[in-house]
Design brief:
Shape of chain B: flat
Largest interface: A-B, 44 and 45 residues
Largest sheet of chain B: none
Structural class of chain B: mainly alpha
Distance between the termini of chain A: 33 Å
Helix content of chain B: over 70%
Oligomer: heterodimer
Strand content of chain A: under 5%
Distance between the termini of chain B: 44 Å
Structural class of chain A: mainly alpha
Radius of gyration of chain B: 16 Å
Helix content of chain A: over 70%
Number of strands of chain A: 2
Strand content of chain B: under 5%
Strand order of the largest sheet of chain A: 1-2
Largest sheet of chain A: 2 strands, antiparallel
Order of helices and strands of chain A: HHHHHEEHHHHH
Chain lengths: 266, 92
């Protein structure tokens, strides 16, 4: 039981630091290391993702990092993606899904690493951030950011929604890098907005898993109890890390998870 | 409701949901009882849904019709997922 609490805490900590739900680490850890059946692992992961995302979102809202309107717009695509995912999944084998997802993450990891030194902020406060952009406070400085290539962000959110229910993840691992690297959102705002969204994405799938009786007790309870305080800690610590460090961490996570998924699919 | 007030309201809802579920889950696990654990998980699943309700109401009060409509759409998707879940549960 202690091992399950610790597993939930570790994935919650890393997830909340990077704006993920942590499901992308939790499902393989539960299935491969702790030999939990896949459906129970996905159900436990979805509940843990809700805990991590809600705790991180509460901390990030307090800091003014969450862009609620942008989150809402992207959530529309995510919800459609959730429905489309169920249809697409029937046409692809699990191996094809893993290879495609793994390669996509790998490419995103390389893009994140290459762009780790670039910033998406504008120092001139007179610049209008537009309807979906926002302002970001970092220490004593305030910056403006504008949203670029929104259709690409919507497409990424659609894909994130599709993989969410299939793999028991929140989809942050797709959304955060795309929002940062292609849509002009600073990494902290991208991560905070992602955690704000993925609680809803995971809840939509979690209802179904819960009603089917796939939420195993006390396994899920132990994982969620670990994830809750660790996520609050992770979200608080993310403020102390430099934006570049967060991007490099994200790139490493993308490359590692992408390689593992591609290998599993081969 | 000004933007900061709406953020604060959503933050409070998330905090209440997390506190309630945390207490139920911890108490249930410590006592070895499944009922509080089940209610803790239900409280956790309800937390993002409740924050969406609060956000929708806030946007309607702000007369931000476009974003309120967007929020209502997502609430509809979440509601349909809940409806499917209840049908599955009723059939078990």
């Amino acid at each position: 039981m202690a091992l399950l609490v610790l597993t939930g805490a570790a994935t919650g900590l890393v997830g909340s630091l990077l704006g993920l739900g942590g499901g992308v680490f939790l499902v393989p850890l539960l299935t491969l290391a702790l030999h939990v059946p896949i459906r129970a692992a996905i159900a436990a992961s979805l509940i843990s993702v809700i805990a991590t995302a809600s705790a991180s979102a509460a901390v990030n809202l307090n800091r003014g990092l969450v862009n609620m309107r942008l989150g809402l717009v992207l959530e529309v695509a995510t919800s459609v993606g959730g429905l489309a995912g169920g249809l697409t999944a029937a046409r692809l084998t699990q191996h094809q899904l893993f290879v495609a997802f793994g390669l996509t993450l790998g490419v995103m990891g390389v893009v994140m690493a290459a762009r780790s030194g670039r910033r998406n902020v504008i120092s001139d406060l007179a610049v209008d951030p537009g309807r979906l952009g926002g302002r970001l406070q970092e220490g004593a400085s305030t910056y403006v950011y504008r949203v670029r290539r929104l259709p690409f962000g919507l497409f990424a959110s659609l894909i994130a929604g599709a993989v969410s229910g299939l793999l028991g993840v929140g989809g942050g691992i797709v959304k955060v890098p795309v929002l940062n690297a292609f849509c002009g959102i600073p990494i902290r705002a991208a991560a905070a907005t992602s955690t704000f969204m993925i609680g809803v994405t995971a809840a939509a799938s979690a209802f179904i898993y819960f009603s089917r009786g796939d939420v195993a007790l006390p396994l899920t309870t132990a994982v969620a109890i670990g994830a809750l305080p660790a996520s609050l800690l992770g979200a608080s610590l993310s403020d102390r890390l430099r934006a570049r460090s967060l991007k490099v961490m994200m790139a490493v996570v993308l490359l590692a998870v992408g390689a593992r998924m591609a290998l599993e699919g081969m | 409701m000004p933007e900061r007030g709406l953020e604060r309201a959503v933050e409070v809802v998330l905090g209440i949901g997390l506190l309630a579920s945390g207490l139920l889950l911890t108490g249930g696990l410590a006592l070895g009882r499944f009922a509080p654990q089940r209610w803790g998980i239900i409280a956790l699943m309800a937390t993002p849904a409740m924050r969406l309700v609060v956000l929708t109401v806030g946007l309607l009060r702000e007369r931000d019709w476009i974003f309120a409509a967007v929020s209502l759409w997502i609430l509809g998707v979440l509601g349909s997922s809940l409806w499917v879940a209840l049908r599955i549960a009723a059939g078990r």
